[in-house]
Amino acid sequence: MTEDKIDIKSLNFTELQKLLEEMGEKKFRAKQLYEWIHKRLVLSFDEMTNLSKDMRKKLDESCTIEGARIIKKQVSSDGTAKFLMRLSDGNTVESVLMKYKHGNSVCISTQVGCRMGCRFCASTVGGLIRSLKTSEMLDQIYEIQRTTGERVSNIILMGIGEPLDNYDNVVKFIRMISDENGLNISQRNITLSTCGLVDRLKKLVDEKLTITIAISLHAPNDELRREMMPIANRYSIHEIIDACRYYVDMTGRRITFEYSMVEGKNDSRECAMQLVELVRGLNCHINLIPLNPVEGRMGQRSKGADIQNFKLLLEKNHTNVTIRREMGRDIDAACGQLRNKERGGNDDESICKD
Ligand SMILES: C[S@@+](CC[C@H](N)C(=O)[O-])C[C@H]1O[C@@H](n2cnc3c(N)ncnc32)[C@H](O)[C@@H]1O
Ligand code: SF4
Fold first, then answer.
1. How far lies 194's CA from each of 12, 157, 224, 237, in Å?
2. Which terms are listed as keywords in the entry (predicted)?
3. Closest-approaching ligand to the CA atom of 164
4. Is the CB of 262 under 6 A from ligand 2?
5. Contact 74, 338 (CB under 8 A)
6. Atom of ligand 1 nearest to the CA of 216
7. Kindly report the CA angle at 258 between 81 and 242, in degrees rounded to 5?
8. What gap in Å lies between CA 157 and CA 204, rounded to an integer?
9. Is residue 94 among the annotated active site residues?
């Protein structure tokens, strides 16, 4: 993105009004401009035909509307499409379009890389390069909607990166994508997945958003979690569960726990029973995810029978549980794999070693 120009797509409605005032333009133009950018999804100021030529010229000189552009697309036999998006500085991220009967979901990235270092994850190979701007998150949705013609109704913040490590831009993204002057996607249809940054999680609850929170738990005790996720050295499972209780109490909404099943690691009967005890009394749902093994990263996927037995044990003990339906298994399924392939899979030492 051109550094000296204003990143106009990252400005919310109020900020856009202020910008126009500063440019000597009428405030009411903000609605027109916001709609061109966030509803009609145009790629240039030239296309904004109800704005004067003079105003378009001024905007073009001082602002940029650039964002993410699709450079590669993989389509699975089940219709799931994975996109490699190029950002204006040449970095790349991944986004995925999944088609369901109830509508289209898009999974977006929130950072270029990730510094959390989870041992099984492809997104953290190479560490964190940078966080995404609000415009770059919006543009993943806009670009998919624009190029496929499919209307997006659900958003999942579960692509490359840790959303709560890019807190301000992510919260702004959620508010802007649900703005009635833009795509107006209901916050109830947005899910944010986090490895569990407890302080940020509590702060997020206080934002009074109506999104769904998913916690990447993956282990029922601290010892095992520390083996799988370095962040577990900073926050204990009990601190996470306390933050989840706060979330449920404050919002009345159910929380989701993601549990990636790794053969011989976290798929035992004992783990299932510990998990039951951990979440007892909490309004929650557990999503069992068969691991997508990543070359050079930790673990193999649990056997189908072990996943079923784990699920049965949870059910018998009155715990809400499902096995996540796998979408796009025949393409580079684990998040971050496509990007790694593209960049040659270089490892980096800047990741979290807590
Ligand atoms: C890529 S992360 C992004 C969101 C956030 N950073 C988090 O960890 O929740 C999304 C989800 O994918 C899971 N995941 C990462 N690598 C995986 C793999 N190889 N197989 C299955 N799930 C994986 C994560 O644990 C997390 O639940
Ligand atoms: S699972 Fe999430 S937090 Fe962990 S390394 Fe991957 S993207 Fe980062």
1. 25, 9, 18, 13
2. 4Fe-4S, Cytoplasm, Disulfide bond, Iron, Iron-sulfur, Metal-binding, Methyltransferase, rRNA processing, S-adenosyl-L-methionine, Transferase, tRNA processing
3. 1
4. no
5. yes
6. 27
7. 140
8. 14
9. yes
Verify whether residue 335 is a known catalytic residue: yes
Query: Which residues have C-beta within 8 Å of that of residue 176, sequence separation ≥ 6?
Result: 12, 38, 134, 138, 182
Tens of pLDDT, residue by residue over 215-271, are 999 999 999 999 999 999 999 999 999 999 999 999 999 999 999 999 999 999 999
CA distance 32 to 111: 30
Which residues are 259's β-sheet partners?
288
Residue length of the chain: 354
Burial of 213 (0-12, 13-18, 19+ CB in 10 A): buried
Please report the ipTM that was assigned to this predicted complex: 0.99
Provide CB contacts within 8 A for 103, sequence distance 6+: 151, 152, 153, 154, 189
pTM of the complete model beyond 0.80: yes
Which residue among the candidates 244, 284, 335, 352 is catalytic per the annotation? 335
Please return the burial class of 325, using the count of CB atoms within 10 Å of its CB with bins 0-12, 13-18 and 19+.
exposed
Nearest Cα residue to 136 out of 198, 188, 65, 40: 65
Distance CA 353, CA 343 (A): 23
Q: What is the pLDDT of residue 353?
A: 44
**Is 107:98 a contact under the CB 8 Å cutoff?**
yes
End-to-end alpha carbon distance in the chain: 33
Give all domains of the chain, ordered by start, each with its CATH number.
Answer: 6-64 (1.10.150.530), 69-343 (3.20.20.70)
Best residue for ligand 2 mutational test, from 195, 257, 260, 335 (most atoms within 8 Å of Cβ): 195
Alpha-carbon span 138 to 132, nearest angstrom? 10
The answer to whether 258 and 216 have CB atoms below 8 angstroms apart is yes
d(CA 125, CA 6): 32
